[in-house]
Each structure stands twice: as structure tokens, then as C-alpha cells.
Amino acid sequence: MNKFSNETNEFFTNKHELYYETITNHAHKEWIVLFHGLGGNCSIFYKQIPTLKEQYNLLLIDLPGHGESSNLPSEEANTLYATSKLVIDILDKENIESAHFVGVSSGTILMQYLAMHFPNRIQSMVLAGASGKWRKWGEILGKTTLAKGIRNLLPYKLPYVTFAYILMPKVNHKKSRGIFIREANKLSKQSYLRWAFVIRDSYKIYNELSKLTNEIPKLYICGNEDHMFIDGIKSHVQNEKNSNLYIIDKCGHVCNIEKPLEFNQLTLDFIKNQSTQLPSVREEKIKIHSGTSIKKVS
């Protein structure tokens, strides 16, 4: 089903491929690939699409088991590897040599995996609400709910809904929390567990990243109320080459929904800096930014 009304959209799905849509802008050659988080689908970028499509071609993908995409085969043990291969297949099919990637929450874990294994396909990365190292009590709670005895005892959606309230507890988080709970009702148990294990083990990806020299320009964006992940991302960015963190005030985990205007401007400014089709603006070399805009110098 076509989620975005635009005559240039194309969408494909079968049992061997992911569902995806393209929004093409023939005046521009560069692409942005968008990844949603656990329980979502590509429609969560409804506040980004009108802005981004004016200057870029867009590729929106429903990750395995989400939206219109089917589950990965049960015998496929490595979720990130299998999904990455499917994403690369889509890029090849659409003749996209490389692209800018924008992801939210657990979608950023897949982006980091792609960055390690297929760096030549990535021009730049914008990671919103990046799920790296959890606060210790959250990590313990997550591991407990996924322990075999507990996960077989509890209704599988109960931990997801509980964590939605833990991650997004405030009144201003209500809209994004509601969207993710609503969309999660479409998840099968198999899909939920697959991606829940990816999130549980996200620290392993960041441990691997810390051993590598990052050459891909990365912008991490998070809300100052993203209490579960903000400290871990601050620590990671301080030690990662070629990356910056921008913290949005009075904002929680899903900053692309809670603060879309600020998020969109940050994303466009950053991607333009890395773009081959538009003049770039040199950024001040500061690791962590906070406020309403990234300071630029000519």
C-alpha cells in the first residue's frame, strides 16, 4: 500500500525482499535512505518527507517484520547481517551507488552495522535517538524481560508497551509514544523478539565501532530528555572521529516527531555539508552542541 501520495513513488515487496518506496526528484541526483525504529514503519517520517523531498531523492524502507515487509526466515540467525544484505540489494536494484542515511532509534543500530561492513555505500549518517549503551538499570530490565522463562510467560507486547512509557514518560512524549505503541500492535512475536534482541545487544555494535577509525561523517541528534541513552551517546561521540552530537532541548527519544522543524533543519544543514550536489558550509569543530542551532562559520 502506497503510504505517501506522490506520482513519483514506487513500491515493491515480495517474500524475498523488503517493502520500500521511492520518492524521486529529477532535479537532484543524491539520495537519502530512511530507517525507522522497532515497532514503526517508514510512515514515521511523515514530518520529514515534505522537506527532504524538495532537495533529495528518498528511499523509505520497512524493516523486516514491520509495516508491509515480511519476516526474515526463522533459520536466519543474524538479523543485522540479513537485513543489511537486503538493503544493499535495494540500493543495487535502484542504481544507488551511495546515499545519505537517516535513522531513528533502533534503525540507527542497523546504520552502524552498515557503516562497518559497507562504508563505501554511505555518504553521511544522521542518527536520531541512537540506541547505544543503556543506563544500567534499563539494561538489566531489558535482559530480564528477554530471558527465556520470562519472555515465554509474559504477553510479548507487554514489555514493548512498558518500555515505551519508560523511554518516553513525559507529556510532551505522548504523541511519539502513542504512534509507536499503535504501530507495534502490527508486530508478530517473532519480529518483536528479533529486533528486541538487536536492541539488547546494541552495546556490542558500539564496542566494535570503538575499535575502528570512523571515516563517515555522522551527526547524532537526541533530546535532552532521552534519559536512557543520552549519557552513552555523549561518551561515544567524544571518542569517535568525524562525528558530532546535537542535543535538542525539551525533547525526548523520538526527536523527529517531537521537534520536526528543528530536526529537519539540522538534518538538511548537515547533509548539505557532505553533499556533492550543493555548496557546503564548514562547521565549527565542536563535539557536542546544544541549543536551537549548530553554530556555523564561513
Outline the structure in words.
- 39% of the residues lie in helices and 17% in strands.
- The longest helix has 15 residues, at 79-93.
- The protein has helices at 49-52, 79-93, 107-117, 136-145, 148-153, 157-167, 174-184, 189-200, 202-209, 230-238, 255-258, 260-274, and strands at residues 10-14, 17-23, 31-35, 57-61, 99-104, 122-128, 218-223, 243-248, 288-291.
- The chain has a single domain, classed as 3-Layer(aba) Sandwich (Rossmann fold), CATH 3.40.50.1820.
- α2 crosses α3 and α6 packs antiparallel against α7 (174-184).
- The chain has 12 helices and 9 strands.
- The protein has a 9-stranded mixed sheet with strand order 1-2-4-3-5-6-7-8-9, with helices on both faces.
- By secondary structure, it is α/β, with parallel strands linked by helices.
Notable traits:
Rossmann fold, disordered C terminus, Pimeloyl-ACP methyl ester carboxylesterase, 9 strands, alpha/beta, about 300 residues, about 15% strand
Give a short summary of the structure:
The protein has helices at 49-52, 79-93, 107-117, 136-145, 148-153, 157-167, 174-184, 189-200, 202-209, 230-238, 255-258, 260-274, and strands spanning 10-14, 17-23, 31-35, 57-61, 99-104, 122-128, 218-223, 243-248, 288-291.
Shape: globular
Helical percentage: 25-40%
Uncertain residue segments: 5-10, 278-289, 292-298
What is Rg?
18 Å
The CATH topology name reads Rossmann fold
Q: Give the biggest beta sheet.
A: 9 strands, mixed
Pfam family, one: Abhydrolase_1
InterPro entries: AB_hydrolase_1, AB_hydrolase_fold, AB_hydrolase_sf, Epox_hydrolase-like
Domain AB hydrolase-1: 31-260
GO molecular function, one term: catalytic activity
